[in-house]
Design goal:
Helix content: 25-40%
Number of helices: 3
Distance between the termini: 15 Å
Strand content: 5-15%
Order of helices and strands: EHEHEH
Shape: elongated
Structural class: alpha/beta
Number of strands: 3
Strand order of the largest sheet: 1-2-3
Length: 110
């Protein structure tokens, strides 16, 4: 699995590499993101399965490498979880605003 908009994993570098290194024709990679990006980076690799990383009903605008691991029912990080991760490195003010905002005012993304 890879998320196109991840801020930690350089998926635009990794996707072509995986296409070359995964030699088993039965291998698959799930790409959460834009199909146009896959066409640009790995157009000839039919093993790349493209899925959207936009889920409006959950106010999700993109995925990261962490977000794909949590189910909506997760008691800590799920839709009604006890914790909210509200930060990008170095952005203390926006993190505080996010934590204090009502749930329906927060959108989630990488």
């Amino acid at each position: 699995m890879m998320a196109e908009h991840d801020s930690i994993v350089d998926t635009e570098e990794l996707l072509p590499l995986i296409s070359r290194q995964m030699v088993n024709p039965q291998s698959r990679i799930l790409w959460y993101g834009n199909e146009k990006t896959v066409q640009k980076l790995a157009a000839s690799d039919t093993r790349v399965i493209v899925l959207t990383d936009v889920v409006p009903e959950y106010r999700v605008t993109s995925f990261s490498h962490m977000g794909m691991l949590y189910r909506p029912e997760n008691p800590k990080y799920g839709a009604a979880g006890s914790d909210r991760i509200c930060r990008k490195e170095g952005e203390k003010a926006s993190g505080r605003l996010c934590l204090e905002a009502p749930e329906d005012a927060v959108f989630y993304g990488a």
